[in-house]
Write a structure and sequence with these properties.
The chain is of the alpha/beta class. It has a single domain (4-281), classed as Alpha-Beta Barrel (TIM Barrel), CATH 3.20.20.190. It has ten helices and eight strands. The chain has helices spanning 27-36, 38-48, 55-61, 91-102, 121-135, 151-157, 192-205, 222-227, 233-250, 267-278; strands spanning 4-7, 65-72, 79-82, 86-89, 109-117, 161-165, 213-215, 259-262. Strands 1, 2, 3, 4, 5, 6, 7 and 8 form an eight-stranded mixed sheet that branches. Helix 1 (27-36) packs across helix 2 (38-48) and helix 4 packs parallel to helix 5. It is globular and about 55 Å long. InterPro entries: PI-PLC_domain (IPR051057), PLC-like_Pdiesterase_TIM-brl (IPR017946), PLCXD1/2/3 (IPR042158). It comes from Ranatra chinensis. This is Phosphatidylinositol-specific phospholipase C X domain-containing protein.
């Protein structure tokens, strides 16, 4: 597999600072929001938004792997991106991806539907139906051997999109890749040293015959947010992570990194996606 750059919480740029809290928000945050209202939402906004660029801007920057977290609202039947707060409805960005791919012969995208909130069996059926309506017949089916999935093979078949769907409702559907076929282990740390050890161990022990995501990011704890309410995730997490993950990526060779994702992929003139793509040009 080639090395592909991705964005973490890809649609979080769409979250407004007065957006309502979403089902994945921590219980403590929901309690504080009831007491402090918009003030609490403005604080949370600083820690929920992990991307500045829109989907189209990310695509133009070289991002080809997108991390989606989806929920619904009580008042309508639409699907929304969430990360502690509600972002935009997903139809628009999905169609932006489709248009980008249709305009370019040799491009593909990987869509990772990683988390779902407040979705029951019927909602999953509707969401899967929506994805097929948007992307069929360009969806790459799950192969027996992942080594068969090359850019040349996908172009020959007319496939432009791989959809990873991390819920049991996708099992048996050949259009959707289950979680076990594309592991994405979460570092869950604020320590740069621990992050690098985690990433290094992951690349050395990753399973065969599947894709693999290296999450090049730090995750704020509750205490991080509580003690830095006027800071944000970019200053406390994204920038410190980049200081250690960019050199780590630069030390890797062809085939070692499959997908790597990060926060604020546009930072430093897009050094993150450029570094990941450059791995395809290096030799072992």
């Amino acid at each position: 597999l080639i090395s592909s750059p991705g964005s973490h919480d890809s649609l979080s740029y769409s979250i407004k600072n007065d957006a309502p809290l979403s089902p994945d928000a921590e219980p403590e945050v929901k309690s504080l929001e009831k007491a402090f209202g918009c003030l609490m939402r403005r604080i949370m906004h600083r820690w929920c938004v992990t991307q500045k660029y829109t989907i189209t801007e990310q695509l133009n920057l070289g991002i080809r792997f997108f991390d989606f977290r989806v929920s619904v609202k009580v008042e309508d039947d639409n699907f929304y991106f969430v990360h502690g707060m509600y972002g935009e409805e997903i139809n628009g960005p999905l169609n932006d991806i489709l248009r980008f791919l249709q305009d370019r012969d040799n491009e593909i995208a990987i869509l990772d539907f990683q988390h779902f909130y407040a979705l029951g069996p019927q909602e999953h059926m509707r969401l899967i139906g929506l994805l097929k309506d948007v992307f069929c017949p360009a969806i790459c089916p799950l192969p027996d051997n992942i080594a068969d999935v090359t850019l040349a093979w996908m172009k020959q078949k007319g496939y432009k999109v791989i959809i990873i769907y991390r819920d049991k409702s996708c099992l048996g559907d050949v259009c959707l890749w289950p979680s076990k076929r594309w592991p994405t282990p979460w570092p869950e740390t604020m320590s740069p040293a621990t992050l690098i050890n985690f990433l290094e161990s992951g690349t050395k022990t990753r399973p065969t015959n599947c894709g693999y995501v290296s999450q090049c990011l730090l995750t704020p704890t509750k205490s991080t947010v509580a003690t830095h309410v006027f800071s944000d995730i970019r200053k406390k997490c994204a920038r410190p992570a980049a200081l250690v993950t960019i050199p780590w990526l630069e030390s890797k060779h062809d085939g070692c990194i499959n997908v790597a994702i990060a926060d604020f992929v546009e930072d430093n003139d897009g050094i993150f996606p450029r570094t990941v793509v450059s791995l395809n040009k290096t030799s072992k």
